[in-house]
Amino acid sequence: MEAEPPLYPMAGAAAPVSRDSDGVLGPQLDELVGAYPNYNEEEEERRYYRRKRLGVLKNVLAASAGGMLTYGVYLGLLQMQLILHYDETYREVKYGNMGLPDIDSKMLMGINVTPIAALLYTPVLIRFFGTKWMMFLAVGIYALFVSTNYWERYYTLVPSAVALGMSIVPLWASMGNYITRMAQKYHEYSHYKEQDGQEPKQRPPRGSHAPYLLVFQAIFYSFFHLSFACAQLPMIYFLNHYLYDLNHTLYNVQSCGTNSHGILSGFNKTVLRTLPRSGNLIVVESVLMAVAFLAMLLVLGLCGAAYRPTEEIDLRSVGWGNIFQLPFKHVRDYRLRHLVPFFIYSGFEVLFACTGIALGYGVCSVGLERLAYLLVAYGLGASAASFLGLLGLWLPRPVPLVAGAGVHLLLTFVLFFWAPMPRVLQHSWILYVAAALWGVGSALNKTGLSTLLGILYEDKERQDFIFTIYHWWQAVAIFTVYLGSSLPMKAKLAVLLVTLVASAVSYLRMEQKLRRGVAPRQPRIPRPQHKVRGYRYLEEDNSDESDAEGEHGDGAEEAAPPAGPRPGPEPAGLGRRPCPYEQALGGDGPEEQ
User: Where exactly are the transmembrane stretches of this chain (predicted)?
Assistant: First the structure.
């Protein structure tokens, strides 16, 4: 009996498939399901990893631009706010007896004091939210601080300043961790052919990602230091039109530079020639708010994840108690102990650029209307000099970091003996040169330290702890500068000089120990303890374990049993629960074939 034709023939159906004498389908089936004749596996693989590398570059640029916009908005708003609140007439006309100076002092206290506790919660927050989402959350808190300036009251400014202070260390620690991870990923995607012949557990050689890390850190800090220049745009295009000239603001100033005491002693209490209209202030703050929101969108939409989902789970599964303790346990490592003076100096020198050079030497002698241009010179000099960190590709590792310290040492000696005269503009070019050169030293310092930490600690289980310690010590140094703001300039320069020399000597001592082969004492990272059984965790090998665990394995979990059928009946709970139909039949699972 012949088979009936189908009721609904397929549109565009081909001719009937022929069969040979044995009933085997002919060449039509081979043409249908066979390999694409023009498919080139190596070319497709090359294109795939090229897209991956471009994605990493996109992540680095987005994170750098987001950090630049965030910090630029914060600095610009804080600078404009403090200048407006300093003016007596503005306070009396706008806010009466509300006590703006007292609010400003408590706001600065919240920004500078709160990060002291950051070592207790930063690693926990980074592991809980993940690196990317911690960056997004911290940028959102910066945007919250900007939004509170629409309604300047004690209950808006002070709580937002405290929240901002809590997010400072998590933001920059997660940023440093993120850039380091991107360098490691870029190396992985660039050398994918070398990894084909390696075992799954084998990691790339130590320091193999260092060239990419140097480039990425140079890009990041070039963007970051541009924030000092971008922060001056509200000052240049808005606030400078309302300021008195230097003959009025510096009328009672007697000494500047190394002979000054505190911050701008004798500065006039009225600096605004006319008061800015409230509508204009709202427009400026709205622009800053829009830029802060743009930074949030950059981090949210363009920054990819720093870790794979399974790696994120492993990082959290070591135990929250261990995550809390590990930053303190890393103090055993002599490399970190030797770098602590450099961490402290890194916080000192940034604050000295903004308060010492810009205010004590710059505004004190050439007037408040030139403050923005001094900070622009500092920011542009630091941004351009960030690429000098690429010299580490050809020179020995200590050269960029020690060169930055040498530039600052020379400038500190010059500033120690220089006292510019108030209301004299002939030496203004010296101030711009000094600000730009200080920016060169700052760029070499920041780029060198972050690159060094990424090279010394390339295990992904430790990077968030290390960058947390680095930025926490920076926050401690900034808090110390905040407490000593009323000291004479010579005392500030002396502290800066002693810290700089101690940090350089300590760092060179660390490099000497490394050359001698002294092994650092690192705390052991516990193995992940998973509470669920997923497909990823039934594998015999843990591909995310650290090198120390893979080599020594002390205190590790017992080895997984070999794969294969086990003797005796298989319990139902090990694979999956039996469905209701199987339970009704009285069985533990699907029947074995």
Answer: 56-77, 107-126, 133-151, 157-179, 212-239, 281-307, 339-359, 371-394, 401-421, 465-485, 491-508
CA atoms within 13 A on the CB side of 24: 3
Q: What is the pTM of this model?
A: 0.81
Q: Hey, is 313 helix, strand or coil? A: helix
Every domain of the chain and the residues it spans: 44-193+208-516
Residues pairing with 488 in the sheet: 261
Contact between 493 and 415 (Cβ < 8 Å): yes
Question: What is the torsional sign of CA 422, 81, 384, 392?
Answer: positive
Backbone angles phi, psi at 272, to 5 degrees: -100, 125
SS3 state at 123: helix
Question: For the residues 479-497, what does the mean pLDDT come to?
Answer: 91
Residue type, 295: A
So what's the pLDDT on residue 573? 45
Cα–Cα distance, 340 to 355 (Å, whole number): 23
Gap between the Cα atoms of 375 and 369, Å rounded: 12
Which residue's structure tokens are 């490099």? 511
272 beta partners: 243
Q: Which residue has the higher pLDDT, 530 or 171?
A: 171
State what percent of residues in the chain have pLDDT above 70: 80
The half-sphere exposure of 183 on its side-chain side, counting CA atoms within 13 A, is 28
Domain 44-193+208-516 is found in CATH 1.20.1250.20: yes
What CA–CA distance (Å, rounded) separates 355 from 374? 11
- For 354, counting Cβ atoms within 10 Å of its Cβ (0-12 exposed, 13-18 middle, 19+ buried), the class is middle
